[in-house]
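Reopening this ticket.

The earlier resolution said the output was attached, but the attachment link was broken on my side. Pasting everything inline this time so it's all in one place.
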Amino acid sequence: MAGVVRLVVTVDGLSPQFLGPYGGSWVSTPSINQLAGHGCVFEHAFCESLDPQQSIRDLWKAEPSLFEQYAAAGYETVLVHDDDSWLSEMNGAAQLVGVEVPDEIEAGDSIADTRMAALVGAALEQLDKVNSNTFIWVHSQGMLGPWDAPSEFISNILDEEDPVPPRYEHPPGHSIGKDDDPDLLLGIRQSYAAQIEVLDTCLEALFDHPRLKHESSDIFLIGLRGYPLGEHAHVGLQDAPLFGESFHVPVIVRSNLVSRQRWDGLTLLADLRCFLAPPNDSDLQWPNRRHLIVKQNDEVTLRTQEWLLRRCGEANELYAKPDDRFEFNDVADIMTEVVDDLVRQTM
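Inline output:
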C-alpha cells in the first residue's frame, strides 16, 4: 500500500480575488473550490515582503530545514519547480526536479503545451515513482512566468464584443494612465483570468492523483505574492504601490489535522511553518496577529483587523476593513486619531 503524501504547492503572483473561495466569480476554479470545501481557508494571509525569495524563506526558514525534518521522519522528499532563481533558499530534498521554461514561449493549441501542465506532469511522475510516505513541494512561477493560456481559455473569458487581448510572453508591469485605452486593462485582466483557469485545470489532475485521496494525505496551496491588476492605476508587482492586492495571498489547507473552516486571524506566511512541519502530537499554533507591517522603499503599510494604513513619505491613507475590500475609500482626513495611533505602531 502506498504511503501518505504531504503536498505543498506554491504559486507566485496568485491573486485571491480571482479564486472562488475568496469571492471570485469571473472565472471558474472548481478544483480550488473543492480543495477549500474540504479544508481550511485562511481569509487574511499576507506576505511580509514583495521579494519572492523572502516569501520562500518565511515558509522555509528552520533548523533543520523542512526537507531535513521530513527525511528524519522517514519521508521521501521531492522538490519540483520551474524557477531555479530561488533554489539557494532551499536545501535537503532527495529528489530535485526542474522543469525548463524556454526563453520564448508562444501559446499552444492545448493545455498540454503550457508550462503549468509540464510542471504538474513532472510532479505526477514523482508521485507514481515513490510509494513510501512522501513530502513533495511543487513551486510555480505562476503569474510571474509566461502567460501561455491556449486560445480556447481566453475565448471562454471574452464577451461577444470584447477585442481579443494581446499575448504576454512576459507578464505586464506598468502604470495605468487616465488617457490609456480601457480595453488595454480589460485585456490584461482577461489574460490573467485565463491563466488562473489553466492553473485550476492543471491542479485538478494533480489533486486527483490516487495517493492524494488517502485520508491522511495533506494538500497546501499557498500564494507567495499577489498581483495588481489596475486597482490603483498599476499592473504588476514592479514598483507597485503597497495596497492589499500586492501582498494579500491565498492559503488553503486540506488536512485531517485542521477542521473545515474559514480562519480570519491575521496571518503571515511565516506563521504557516508549524502547519508545514511533519505531523506530531503538538498543538498547532493558529495565527492571530494584532497587526502586520509590510515595507518597500519609502512605503509602509500596516494592516489590522479593522484598518489598513498606508504611509508614503509623510502622506497617510486609511481604509476601513473588512468593508473597504480593495482600499478605494480613503478616510484618513476624518479619522485622524486612528491614523496617529497606527502611525506610532509603524515606528
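Reporter confirms the inline version is readable. The radius of gyration is 20 Å. The longest helix spans residues 182-207.
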